[in-house]
Amino acid sequence: MAASATTVPSVPTFEQHGLKKHSDGDWANKVPVQTRSARPKSTDVADFAAVTGREVEWRYSPVAKLTDLTAGTLDGSVYEYSATPVDGVAVSWVSRDDARIGSAGIPEERASANAWSSFEQALVISVTGEEAKTFTLNRGALGSGPRAAHTVIEAAPFSRALVVLQNTGDARLAENVEIVVGEGAQLSVVTVQEWADDAIHTATHFSRVGRDAKLKHIVVSLGGAIVRVNPMTLLAEQGADVEAFGLYFSDAGQHLEQQVYVNHDAPNTRSRVTYKGALQGQGARSVWIGDVLIGNKATGTDSYEQNRNLVLTDGTRADSVPNLEIETGDIAGAGHASATGRFDDEQLFYLMSRGITEDEARRLVVRGFLTEIVQQIGDAELETRLQESLETELVGTELAS
């Protein structure tokens, strides 16, 4: 008697391997996002589930203190700002249907989407002209109510400028900043967070860098109870270049967070990411996540990211998570580094052997550690003021041995 034939399905099924739905939901069709580039995107807050803190983009954040920004109603009206007029820089409010809105990126998480859904008009900073120029926008009267904001910084082809976003005073702010760097342009954007002690600020910076253009993006976070600034850069065309720097100083009970994403999506692009932070006081917290994607079209990519944290006292916590995704083997180089530690004993010994007291020697080490980032700004007046702010942070600090 001939044996009966057994038909084997050409495509394996979940049931074939004993995988079935469970009472906690249709998990087989809800596979978690595995890569940074695959996260869902939307400008509508309703497209994002309520934040629980278990999401990959929120797992390091104090989400219970951010509910009014992630799920509440936000005031999206225009706000007061001050700025000194500069030739080659124009500032104006535009409606939501302006073509420039959405040209650099769209939200990947709920706070960003809530801000996008809520703003009434966007503030556009337009840069033109090949002469180097510095423009500072000051915001210091946002108030204590939950608010949304949207800013677009547009650098015309071959233009050159340094744009400073200076933040002070009270705030409960969720915002998006779009940065569009045209062909051959050289743009530096510095965002300085010197908020009041109880301020809360979540921001996503979307950047699109064009052909042979260069963006220098610098985040300085010193003040505020919770500050979460997430820069995302798309190197969209051949020869695009980004240098992303960050400086943060977290005091007792302060949460300072940065989630950096660089997407190499064109040939011969370059990125350098350097973030440095210091922590002091019970409950001081910093979070740095660095994601770099080298896409399958990004041949010749040259990329490196690093994060360094200096612990000044006991009772602090620094989370540092570098990630690298590479989809092509034809690159110039890629790497990442992360370190958290106390002081270099050899540096202290060298300074003390020359008559400097131990406390002052430790403060000199901290200044030297953080000054590297300050010096990248390129504006002497702002650099001096930030150095003074760092000195103020260090006054009276009992540095850990």
Please outline the helices and strands:
Elements: H1 67-70, E1 82-83, E2 89-95, H2 110-118, E3 121-127, E4 134-139, E5 146-155, E6 160-169, E7 172-181, E8 186-195, E9 200-209, E10 214-223, E11 226-235, E12 241-250, E13 255-264, E14 270-279, E15 285-294, E16 302-311, E17 317-326, E18 333-341, H3 345-352, H4 358-374, H5 380-394
Helix pairs in contact: 3-4, 4-5
Outline the structure in words.
The chain has 401 residues and is mainly β. It has one domain. It contains five helices and 18 strands. Strands 1-4-6-8-10-12-14-16-18 form a nine-stranded mixed sheet, covered by helices on one side. The protein has a nine-stranded mixed sheet with strand order 2-3-5-7-9-11-13-15-17. The longest helix has 17 residues. The protein is globular and about 65 Å long. The N terminus is likely disordered.
